[in-house]
Design goal:
α2 packs across α3, α2 packs across α5 and α3 packs across α4. The two termini are 50 Å apart. Helices cover 42% and strands 23% of the residues. The strands form 3 sheets. Strands 3, 4, 5, 6, 9, 10 and 11 form a 7-stranded mixed beta sheet that branches. The protein folds into 2 domains: 86 residues, Winged helix-like DNA-binding domain superfamily/Winged helix DNA-binding domain (Arc Repressor Mutant, subunit A, Orthogonal Bundle), CATH 1.10.10; 211 residues, D-Maltodextrin-Binding Protein, domain 2, CATH 3.40.190.290. The mean pLDDT is 83. The longest helix is centred in the N-terminal third of the chain and has 22 residues. By secondary structure, it is an alpha/beta fold. Pfam families: HTH_1 (PF00126), LysR_substrate (PF03466). One of its GO terms (molecular function) is DNA-binding transcription factor activity. InterPro entries: LysR-type_TF, LysR_HTH_N, LysR_subst-bd, WH-like_DNA-bd_sf, WH_DNA-bd_sf.
C-alpha cells in the first residue's frame, strides 16, 4: 500500500512535467504541450532535480539528453501514469455505477423537484442520494466547496463566483388545521389565532427563520408554540392528530389534505412565497456527465440558461 503521507509531501505534477520533457526532449515543446510557460517548466524541473539529487537532463548538441536516473524514472512512470490516466477517465464511462448527491429542503415532493429527480433516475447506472439540509450543520458554500454535493437546492441565493445559483421554483405557504377543529372555520381573525397553539418548523434557512420571527413578533405578539420539529411530516401528522395549527408549504398541504383531513385557514396576515434556488459548482461543468445532466434540465425548462438570467 502506498505511503499517502509521503505522496502528499511530493508534488506529483513534477512527474507529469518530467515525463513531458522526456517525451519531447525540449523545455519549450513541453511547455506548449502542457499550456504553461517555459519558465514554469524550467522551475519545476529544477525542483525535481533537487528532490532526486540528479540533473535528469544534460545538454547534448543543440538539445538535451536524459541521464541514467531519468531513463529509469521514465521506465517506471510510463506505465504508472498510464494507469492513473485510465483511473481518471473511468469515471466518465457510461457503464460505471455513478452517484449524484443532492442536498435540499424537504420539498422533494414538489412537482418541479420531482421532475428533476426523475431526469436523474433516467440514467440507468446512477444512484441518487438526497440529503435533508435541515439536518446539515454546514452552510451551502461549505457543502459545495468541500464537494459534498453535486447540486444544492436552497431558499437562500448564493453570491459566489465559483458557484452558479439559479432560481428554480416558487413555494407559497398556507395556514392549516384539521378539518374538524373545534374553534376555527375557513377564516380566522388575529384574535382567533392568538388563542391557538402553533407548530413550528425548525430550520437553519435564514429566509424562513426571519419570516417566523416577524410573524411571531409583529403580527401575533407571543404566538404560542406547542410543537417544534425539523420534520415537515411530523408537523403535518401532529396537526392531523391535535388542535394545533401550522404554517406549511402549500404543495405538501395539497398532497396530504385529504389523507390527513386538513383544511386551509384564510390568514389575516400576508403569507410569504419562498424562492427555491438550484446551486452547483461552475467547475462541475467540465465533467461531460454533469454538463449533460444540466443540459437535460434546461431542455425540460426546469431552469433558464445562465445567459438568460
Amino acid at each position: 500500500m502506498a505511503n499517502l503521507y509521503n505522496l502528499k509531501r511530493f508534488d506529483l505534477n513534477l512527474l507529469v512535467i518530467f515525463e513531458c520533457i522526456y517525451q519531447h526532449l525540449s523545455i519549450s515543446k513541453a511547455a506548449q504541450t502542457l499550456f504553461i510557460t517555459p519558465s514554469a517548466v524550467s522551475q519545476s524541473l529544477q525542483r525535481l532535480r533537487i528532490q532526486l539529487d540528479d540533473p535528469l537532463f544534460v545538454r547534448s548538441g543543440k538539445g538535451i539528453s536524459p541521464t541514467t536516473v531519468a531513463e529509469n524514472l521514465h521506465i517506471h512512470l510510463a506505465e504508472n501514469l498510464n494507469s492513473i490516466e485510465q483511473t481518471i477517465n473511468i469515471t466518465e464511462k457510461t457503464d460505471l455505477k455513478k452517484r449524484f448527491v443532492v442536498y435540499g429542503p424537504q420539498f422533494h415532493a414538489s412537482p418541479k423537484l420531482t421532475h428533476f429527480i426523475n431526469i436523474l433516475l433516467d440514467e440507468p447506472n446512477l444512484e441518487v442520494i438526497y440529503h435533508d439540509t435541515a439536518a446539515e450543520t454546514d452552510n451551502i458554500e461549505d457543502i459545495m466547496n468541500y464537494r459534498k454535493a453535486d447540486v444544492v437546492f436552497t431558499v437562500e441565493p448564493c453570491s459566489n463566483r465559483a458557484l452558479v445559483s439559479i432560481p428554480f421554483w416558487e413555494c407559497p405557504v398556507v395556514l392549516v388545521c384539521r378539518k374538524d377543529h373545534p374553534r376555527l372555520d375557513n377564516a380566522a381573525t388575529p384574535e382567533d389565532l392568538v388563542k391557538e397553539r402553533f407548530t413550528l418548523f425548525q430550520t437553519r434557512e435564514p429566509q424562513i427563520t426571519e419570516f417566523q420571527k416577524s410573524y411571531n413578533i409583529a403580527r401575533l405578539a407571543g404566538r404560542n408554540i406547542a410543537f417544534t420539529s425539523p420534520s415537515l411530516m411530523s408537523i403535518f401528522n401532529t396537526i392531523h392528530h391535535s388542535d394545533l395549527i401550522g404554517l406549511v408549504p402549500k404543495f405538501i398541504y395539497d398532497l396530504l389534505k385529504d389523507t390527513l383531513n386538513l383544511k386551509e385557514i384564510s390568514s389575516p396576515y400576508p403569507l410569504p412565497t419562498f424562492s427555491l434556488y438550484m446551486v452547483y459548482s461552475r467547475a462541475s461543468m467540465s465533467s461531460p456527465f454533469f454538463s449533460a445532466i444540466i443540459k437535460k434540465v434546461k431542455n425540460n425548462n426546469l431552469i433558464h440558461s445562465i445567459n438568460d438570467l
